[in-house]
Design a protein that fits this description.
mainly beta; 8-stranded antiparallel beta barrel; about 55% strand; disordered C terminus
Length: about 900
C-alpha cells in the first residue's frame, strides 16, 4: 500500500511538472498577440467574413480568453457588424483535441451583440454561413475528417439580440439577455434557459416586456426548438408558450399559447379582431401554427372591457404575402354579461349565447358575417325594456368593403320583448306588455336603408284619457326608408295597423340630433270608425260608425310643425249627444293646426237629409261658422232628445249616489245661417225657414249661451189647437186650423235667457205676435201673445167687444211654463171693459154725447176698501170664458 501511494505521488509530480512545462511552452510558443492574430485569421477563414479580436490569452487553467471580438456582415465591416462579444472565455479539454474532438468544459460570453436580418427576398444575413468554406489552394479536393464539438456548459450575460425582418415589417429586440446552455453539440439536442427584456416593433405598433424561456434546441435539420415553457409580457399582456419552433432557415411554430390576460390592442396587428373586441382584455388558451407566410390559431377566449364580458371559442388564420395579407377570424360566443358599461349605458344582459361570426380581410378589402342568438339570456334596458329567458332574440348580419365605404347588413328579431312603464316617451303615455320587433339595416354607414316591423297585439297602452290600447287588439307598426349621415331619416313607407284600420306614412325627418324638421305624409283609407272609440275613449260616447279616409301633410320644425290634412266621410254615423243621431254622413273636412273646414257634408239628422258647410277655428275654445240646409225638422223628436234629465231632489234616495257631472267647456263662438225646408209638430207645419245666429259660449249647457238670432219662414199651418178652433168660431168658420203666409222673429240671448224682441206670424185668419222670454236650459217660457183677426171677421156683440182701436178684433194671452205643455191664459181686461160699456149702454138705452164714466178695470182702486162689485163686468167675463174655455 505504501508503495502504491509512493508511485501515485511520483506520477502526480510528473504530471504537475508536465503541465507546468506545457504552460511555459504555450506562453512561449503562443504569446497573446499570436493567439489573437491566429484566432482572427482562422475564424475569418472559416466564416468567410472579416473578424477582429482586440485581445487574446491562453492558459491551461483559464483556457482561451478573447476580448473585443467582432464579426462583420458579409463580406466585411463596411456592410456592418454581425456579431460582437465583449469577452469570451473558452475552457476546452486538451486530450480530445488529439482525436479531432472538441470537448469544451465551459464557455462564458459577456455582453454579446447579435444582429439577424432577413431581406425582402427572404434571405438571412447568415445564409452564407451554412455553405461549406472553400479549401486552401492546392488542397486537391480531399475530404476532411469531420470534427466533433461538445460544449458541456455555456453562459451568456448582458447580451443583446436583434432580428430585423423586412418581409414581415417586423423588428424584435432582446435586451439584458442572460442565457444558460447545457450539453451543446453539433449533432444532438441541448438545453437552453433564457431570460431578458423583449421589444417588438411592427409597422407603427410597439410592444415591450420581460421574457423567460426553458427550451431544448436541435442544431441539425430545421434547428427545431422545443419550448418547455416560454413566458412573455408585452405591454399589459401576459403570454405563456409551449411547443416547437423551427426558426432557421424559415421560421415555423406549432405552440400552445395561454394568456391571462391579453390586451386585444397588443395582438390586433397580427390577429384580426372585430371592433367590439379591440379594446377588450382577453384570457384563454390557443393552439397556434405559424410560419413566415401564415398563422393559424384556435382556442377559447374570455373578453372583458368596461362592464362587458364575453366568452366563447375563437379561430383565426392569416397569410402574409407581398401582394397583400389575408386574415380570417371566427368567433363562437358562449356567454355574455353586460352591467353598468359606459359602452352600453342602461343595458344589462347575462346568459348563454349561440351562433357564429366570421371575418375575412385581404389588403383593404374585408367582410364580416354571422349570427348570434341570446334566447336564454336575460336582457334589460333602463328598467322599461326586458327580454326574459326562453324568449328568442337573434341578430344576423354581414359587412364587406371592397372599395370605399363598407356595405352593412343587420337583421334583429325579437318576437316578445317586454315593455314596462317609464320609457323614453312623454309622461302621459303608458305602455306595458309584449312587443315583437323585427329590424333590418342595409347599406353604407352614411346611407343605410332600414325596414322595421313592431307587433303589439299583446301590448297595453294609454295616453291620459285620450288614447287606449287594450291587450288583444291589433297593433302593427312598419317603417321603411333610409338613414342618411346618421342625421336625416327618409321614410319611403310606414304603416300603423290598428283595430280602426291602417295609417300609412311617408316622408323625411332631418337633423334628429339637432333641430328636427319634418316632411311627412299620412294616409288612412279606409278607417273603421266603429272601432275608433276603442282606441280613442273620448270618442266612444259619440258612437261613430262607418268609414272615413284620412290624408295629412306635416312639415317644418318638430317643435312647431305645419299640419295640412283632409278627412273624407263615407256613410258615417255619429251620436253627438244622447238621443241625437247623424247618419249617412258623407263629405270632406280640411284641417290644419288652427282651423278645420267642412265642405259639402251631407247626411241625415233625425231621419231627415241635410247638407252643411262649416269652419271651425281651433283653440282651447273654438269658434264655429255654419252654413247648412235641412229638409225636415220634427220638433217633438228634437224636444225629446234635448229634454233635461230629471234631477233627483235632495231628499231622494238616489240623490247622493249620482255624482255631479262637470259642465263641458263651451264653444267660444258660433255663427252662421241654417235653412230648414219643413218644421213639423203634431200641431204645426212650417216651411222654408232660415235661421241666422251669432252666439257665444255655445255648448250642451245652454245656461251660459249669449248672442243674437233671427228667423224667417214662409207659409205654415197650426192645427188641432183649441184656440185656433175658437178663433175660427169667432170668424164663423169650421175647423181648428190656422194657416199663415209669413213668419219672422228677432232674439237676443243673455246667459241662457232668450229675449224675444219680435215674433210675428202673418195669416189670412189672424196675425200672431209674441214677446217675452224663454229660458233655454229647460225651455221654460214667459210670453205675451197677441192675435189680430181681419176687420169685420167677428160679428155681433163679441166682435165689438174684442175689436181694438185699429179696428181689428184682437185677443191677448199669456203663455207660461215649458213650451212642450204651456199654460195659456187669455187677457180679458180690455175686452171686458169694452163689453161692460156695451152692456151698460144697452141696459139704460144709451144716448149719444154722454160721457162714459164707467170705471176702468185696469186701474186699481185708490183706497184700501174692497173693490166694488161690477155685475156687468162679471157677466161679460163669463161670456168670454165660455167662448174660449177648453173642450
Amino acid at each position: 500500500m505504501k508503495r502504491f501511494l509512493k508511485w501515485m505521488a511520483v506520477l502526480a509530480l510528473i504530471g504537475l511538472a508536465a503541465l507546468t512545462g506545457m504552460g511555459v511552452w504555450l506562453r512561449h510558443s503562443y504569446p497573446p498577440e499570436r493567439i489573437r492574430r491566429l484566432a482572427a485569421e482562422k475564424l475569418g477563414a472559416r466564416l468567410g467574413r472579416q473578424v477582429e479580436i482586440a485581445g487574446a490569452n491562453v492558459s491551461l487553467v483559464r483556457g482561451l480568453e478573447l476580448e473585443g471580438v467582432r464579426i462583420s456582415e458579409s463580406p466585411d465591416f463596411s456592410a456592418g457588424t454581425f456579431v460582437e462579444v465583449g469577452r469570451a472565455r473558452i475552457l476546452p479539454r486538451l486530450l480530445p483535441l488529439l482525436s479531432h474532438r472538441i470537448l469544451v468544459r465551459s464557455i462564458d460570453l459577456e455582453r454579446p451583440r447579435v444582429r439577424v436580418h432577413r431581406a425582402a427576398d427572404g434571405t438571412f444575413n447568415f445564409s452564407d454561413l451554412a455553405q461549406a468554406p472553400a479549401g486552401p489552394p492546392g488542397s486537391g479536393g480531399g475530404t476532411a475528417r469531420a470534427m466533433e464539438l461538445l460544449i458541456a456548459r455555456a453562459a451568456l450575460t448582458e447580451g443583446e439580440f436583434t432580428l430585423e425582418d423586412d418581409v414581415l415589417d417586423l423588428t424584435v429586440g432582446v435586451h439584458a439577455l442572460d442565457a444558460r446552455l447545457a450539453g451543446f453539440s453539433l449533432t444532438d439536442p441541448f438545453g437552453l434557459r433564457v431570460k431578458g427584456n423583449i421589444e417588438v416593433v411592427r409597422a407603427k405598433t410597439r410592444w415591450a416586456g420581460p421574457l423567460a424561456m426553458n427550451a431544448r434546441m436541435s442544431p441539425t435539420g430545421n434547428h427545431e426548438i422545443s419550448l418547455e415553457r416560454f413566458t412573455l409580457r408585452l405591454g399589459s399582456s401576459s403570454l405563456e408558450l409551449s411547443g416547437t419552433l423551427t426558426p432557421l432557415p424559415s421560421p415555423q411554430a406549432e405552440v400552445t399559447l395561454a394568456f391571462s390576460p391579453l390586451a386585444a390592442e397588443d395582438i390586433e396587428p397580427m390577429v384580426l379582431l372585430p371592433d367590439p373586441l379591440k379594446q377588450a382584455t382577453l384570457s384563454g388558451r390557443w393552439k397556434i401554427r405559424a410560419s413566415s407566410a401564415s398563422l393559424t390559431a384556435e382556442g377559447t377566449f374570455d373578453a372583458q372591457n368596461k362592464g362587458i364580458a364575453v366568452s366563447g371559442a375563437l379561430s383565426s388564420h392569416s397569410t402574409l404575402a407581398p401582394g397583400g395579407d389575408r386574415h380570417g377570424i371566427r368567433l363562437d360566443p358562449k356567454t355574455i354579461r353586460v352591467q353598468n358599461s359606459p359602452l352600453a349605458p342602461g343595458l344589462s344582459m347575462a346568459g348563454p349565447l349561440t351562433g357564429r361570426w366570421e371575418a375575412e380581410a385581404f389588403g383593404a378589402q374585408w367582410k364580416i358575417s354571422g349570427e348570434v342568438a341570446a334566447d336564454e339570456a336575460v336582457v334589460a334596458y333602463e328598467g322599461w325594456l326586458e327580454k326574459p329567458a326562453a324568449v328568442p332574440l337573434t341578430l344576423t348580419g354581414s359587412a364587406h368593403s371592397e372599395t370605399g365605404a363598407p356595405e352593412l347588413f343587420l337583421d334583429l328579431r325579437a318576437p316578445a320583448l317586454q315593455l314596462r312603464p317609464g320609457g323614453p316617451w312623454p309622461a302621459p303615455l303608458r305602455l306595458e306588455g309584449a312587443l315583437g320587433l323585427t329590424a333590418e339595416l342595409q347599406g353604407v354607414p352614411s346611407n343605410l336603408a332600414f325596414d322595421l316591423t313592431a307587433e303589439g297585439q299583446s301590448l297595453q297602452g294609454s295616453y291620459g284619457e285620450s288614447f287606449r290600447k287594450t291587450e288583444g287588439s291589433p297593433l302593427q307598426i312598419t317603417a321603411a326608408g333610409r338613414w342618411i349621415d346618421q342625421q336625416d331619416i327618409q321614410i319611403s313607407s310606414a304603416t300603423c295597423r290598428t283595430a280602426a284600420g291602417v295609417l300609412k306614412l311617408s316622408g323625411e325627418v332631418e337633423e334628429p340630433r339637432g333641430t328636427q324638421t319634418m316632411s311627412l305624409r299620412i294616409d288612412g283609407d279606409p278607417l273603421d270608425l266603429s272601432r275608433l272609440g276603442t282606441i280613442l275613449p273620448s270618442l266612444a260616447e259619440f258612437k261613430l260608425r262607418g268609414e272615413a279616409a284620412l290624408h295629412a301633410d306635416i312639415s317644418g320644425p318638430a317643435t312647431d310643425p305645419r299640419v295640412l290634412g283632409q278627412v273624407r266621410l263615407r256613410k258615417t254615423a255619429v251620436t253627438p249627444v244622447p238621443g241625437v243621431e247623424l247618419s249617412e254622413l258623407a263629405g270632406r273636412v280640411d284641417f290644419n293646426r288652427q282651423q278645420a273646414s267642412v265642405h259639402g257634408l251631407s247626411g241625415k239628422a233625425f231621419g231627415s237629409p241635410f247638407t252643411l258647410n262649416a269652419r271651425v277655428d281651433n283653440g282651447e275654445r273654438p269658434a264655429i261658422f255654419l252654413d247648412g240646409d235641412w229638409a225636415r225638422l220634427e220638433v217633438d223628436k228634437v224636444l225629446k232628445a234635448f229634454s233635461p234629465t230629471t234631477t233627483p231632489s235632495k231628499t231622494s234616495p238616489t240623490a247622493a249616489k249620482t255624482p255631479p257631472r262637470p259642465s263641458p267647456a263651451p264653444i267660444a263662438r258660433a255663427a252662421g245661417v241654417f235653412r230648414i225646408g219643413e218644421i213639423t209638430h203634431p200641431h204645426y207645419l212650417g216651411r222654408n225657414f232660415q235661421f241666422n245666429w251669432n252666439l257665444r259660449d255655445v255648448g250642451p249647457d245652454l245656461s251660459v249661451l249669449s248672442g243674437t238670432a233671427s228667423v224667417t219662414a214662409a207659409s205654415g199651418e197650426i192645427t188641432d189647437v183649441p184656440v185656433a178652433k175658437k178663433i175660427n168660431k169667432l170668424m164663423g168658420r169650421e175647423g181648428a186650423e190656422i194657416t199663415y203666409q209669413k213668419l219672422a222673429g228677432q232674439f237676443v240671448v243673455t246667459r241662457g235667457l232668450a229675449d224675444i224682441k219680435t215674433f210675428t206670424l202673418d195669416s189670412d185668419q189672424t196675425d200672431f205676435l209674441a214677446k217675452g222670454r224663454v229660458r233655454l236650459g229647460d225651455l221654460d217660457s214667459d210670453l205675451t201673445l197677441q192675435l189680430k183677426l181681419p176687420p169685420g171677421s167677428v160679428r155681433g156683440s163679441v166682435g165689438d167687444w174684442i175689436t181694438a182701436e185699429d179696428g181689428r178684433p184682437t185677443i191677448e194671452a199669456s203663455l207660461k211654463g215649458p213650451l212642450g205643455d204651456p199654460k195659456v191664459k187669455v187677457d180679458y181686461r180690455d175686452t171686458v171693459r169694452r163689453a161692460a160699456q156695451d152692456i151698460l149702454k144697452k141696459a139704460i138705452g144709451g144716448w149719444k154725447g154722454k160721457p162714459d164714466r164707467s170705471p176702468d178695470p185696469k186701474k186699481a182702486p185708490s183706497s184700501n176698501d174692497a173693490p166694488a162689485k161690477d155685475p156687468l163686468g162679471e157677466a161679460a167675463g163669463q161670456a168670454l170664458e165660455r167662448l174660449f174655455k177648453k173642450k
